[in-house]
Design goal:
The chain is of the alpha+beta class. Among the domains are: 2-81, no CATH class; 228-383, Ribonuclease H-like superfamily/Ribonuclease H (Nucleotidyltransferase, domain 5), CATH 3.30.420. It is built from 14 helices and nine strands. The protein is elongated and about 105 Å long. Bound molecules: zinc ion (ZN).
């Protein structure tokens, strides 16, 4: 009798939500197993255990009825009744089937079929953000947090406030479903080229205004300073200009990639400064000018002491050797581009990708938002060696930078 009972109980718990991690069904199973055990004691003529077995059996039924009633009520009210202590979550995550293969998607189609509901997306973000231990965004409490059975809501054990995985992230206060967010993140982070807000609005069926705001929130996610490394070993530093008239530029700064076609000629040129570690990361910054007082602090802030810094002959770099860096110069004015391993080709490659992206896909970007675009291109460059899925996950992990409100974005 014991095996059929366990099988039936397991079947019921699996069928209810496909997840046998609810406290009450587990308790019911325990009752039925106990009923079996006591009944078997009777078989051994030890004592008359039938009444006790019956009590266990009925208790199991009462518990499972309470469970189903609560499920029905929750659906009706749109609320929850069962708090789920997270230690059960950890235990059961070992035997859960529904999330086991969720990491394995290798295309947009697979992503869309895997993450087809809000709760699946929520659960996935929760795992990337918190691992197995949700943290309350209201009071930063690391203790007991209850997860609701709908996989969307959580409740803090300390401040008793309710929250979703969106709170404290770039998804907060967004009316766009997470399923669309996931598609957008995939298009943004996994591809080698940027996606425009017009294209994205058509791809995931939202307005262009929403798409523009969404993309800016993703750029905001890529810009977190905690995720940036200090550059070391051999570092190239260089400045460039976006927009503006070619003939006004210093000879060594003239664009080798066909100028500024497609870029609005009315926009003043914008200076951008970048430092890149060879075989490492790039940090790019919009700067008001390219004077020494502007560029030198950025190098000091981003590059480790005693690193080798390679630049062109621009006067702003002349003092670098006095700043505990080994400084090497390539003289572009003398038509020198590579002398041994002294060159600035790495940073210039980044500039060419940046310019192709900004002129070709965005066509136009105001100085106000330029830094955000630079962060986007740097993010893509800095994570070029990991897989598209890893870039997707990384952006989810970095989504906890907080909200970026539309009114902040359009503020003059
Ligand atoms: Zn709290």
């Amino acid at each position: 009798m014991i095996f059929p009972t366990i099988l039936v109980a397991m079947f019921i718990t699996y069928r209810t939500r496909g997840m046998p991690h609810h406290f009450l069904p587990n308790l019911a199973v325990l009752c039925w197993i106990s009923a079996n055990s006591t009944w078997m004691l009777h078989d051994f003529y030890l004592w008359d255990s039938k009444p006790m077995a019956l009590v266990f059996f009925i208790a199991g039924f009462v518990i499972i009825s309470v469970y189903f009633t609560s499920l029905l009520m929750r659906k009706k009210k749109g609320n929850y009744i069962l708090d789920r202590p997270n230690f059960l979550l950890i235990f059961v995550s070992l035997i859960r089937k529904d999330m086991k293969n969720i990491d394995e998607f290798s295309s947009l189609v697979e992503l869309l079929t895997t993450f087809n509901t809000e709760d699946k997306c929520s659960l996935y973000i929760a795992r990337k953000r918190w691992g197995n231990k949700p943290i309350c965004p209201h009071c930063e409490y690391h203790g007991k947090v209850y997860a609701f059975a709908d996989n969307i809501y959580y409740k803090c054990g300390a401040c008793r406030k309710k929250f979703t995985v969106r709170v404290g992230t770039i998804f907060e206060d967004s009316k766009i479903p997470l399923t669309k967010w996931f598609a957008a993140i995939y298009l943004f982070a996994s591809r080698t080229k940027p996606v425009s807000s017009l294209q994205l609005s058509k791809d995931i069926k939202i307005t262009q205004k929403s798409a523009w705001h969404l993309l800016h929130r993703l750029r905001y996610g890529t810009s977190h300073p905690d995720y940036k490394k200090t550059l070391k070993n051999t570092v190239e530093a260089d400045e460039t200009y976006l927009g503006g008239k070619e003939k006004n530029k210093h000879l060594s700064k003239r664009d080798k990639f066909g100028g500024y076609t497609g870029f609005s000629a009315n926009i003043d040129k914008a200076a951008v400064f970048g430092v890149v570690e060879r075989k490492g990361e790039v940090h790019a910054k919009y700067v008001v000018d390219t004077k020494r007082e502007t560029l030198e602090p950025i190098i000091i802030q981003n590059v480790k002491e005693f690193a080798r810094v390679i630049t062109d002959e621009w006067y702003a770099y002349h003092n670098l050797k006095n700043q505990s860096f080994q400084h090497a110069t390539i003289k572009h004015a003398l038509k020198q581009y590579v002398v041994g391993d002294i060159h600035t080709n790495t940073i210039e490659n980044f500039w060419s990708v940046l310019k192709r992206g900004i002129y070709g896909i965005y066509h136009f970007t105001s100085k106000k938002h330029l830094q955000a675009y630079l962060e986007e291109f740097a993010y893509r460059y800095n994570h070029r060696l990991i897989t598209p899925n890893e870039r997707f996950d990384l952006l989810l992990k970095q989504s906890n930078v907080g909200r970026l409100e539309y009114k902040t974005l359009i503020k003059k």
